[in-house]
Amino acid sequence: MLFRRRKERGKEAFLLENKFRFAKEIIYQAGAFLLDHLYDDLDVKQKSSPTDLVTEMDQKIQNDLVKKILARYPEDAILAEENGLRHSIADGSVWVIDPIDGTTNFITQKADFAIMLAYFENGIGQFGLIYDVTRDQLYHGGGLFDVYCNDRKLPFFENKPFSDYLMASNAGMLKHNHWGLADFSRECLGVRVYGSAGISFAKVLSGGLVAYFSYNWPWDYAAAYVMAAKLGFVIQTLDGKEPDFQRQEPIMMAPQSKLKDLQKYLEKGKEQ
């Protein structure tokens, strides 16, 4: 019986490693396609607001990723930004896709955008990937896998004063001091606003930021959520709850060891 259980666990790990390898292959392929078409004329449409944009490239990348995933794993399900794909991460084997995170940056700057994938089994994150396309930096790992940027293993968070670190936030939150974030920013070395959740999360993972705060959808934070704990970070709502992976919420990624220190700012609430 013990041998059988070990054999089954070994088979499961082998299958998961293959799935992780496959995820890297398809995200690199998607990035290469975007680079080949970076300066194409784009058909830009507005979604919920003038800054919430979508292009045919968002649709193309998502459709291609979904097609490749379901061709290889037809029993798996999809939660994704476009086309109303909204499968619960708690129900079976689920891929979470953000085809172009930072679409406005992609349109206007041709930089600071990312492709993101995450994979969950019955609500448990198995791995995440954030691909900073123009810098050719793939952040990958989580679950059973160590977290890397390309071939460099990323270090665990080093607990230093906030004044030694940069922080990043949604610009509107800072402007209106929502959740006390403008007050908190004055405790830090400086502030960065990247216009992409994926780029911001990646910079937290790599040690370039101490924390990131914004209003995010599940596909914005899923990949970083899976990788965070391996490096001493946590992704949660700004009032300290688990994200629900169903709607847009005020989300932060911050070091587990700094959560108590953050509370004196965050307890001011979003209307401050």
From TrEMBL:
PROSITE patterns reported in the protein's UniProt record: IMP_1
Superkingdom assignment: Bacteria
Pfam families for the chain: Inositol_P
Entry keywords, A to Z: Hydrolase, Magnesium, Metal-binding
Gene3D superfamilies membership: 3.40.190.80, Fructose-1,6-Bisphosphatase, subunit A, domain 1 (3.30.540.10)
PANTHER family, A to Z: INOSITOL MONOPHOSPHATASE (PTHR20854), INOSITOL-1-MONOPHOSPHATASE-RELATED (PTHR20854:SF4)
Protein name: Inositol monophosphatase
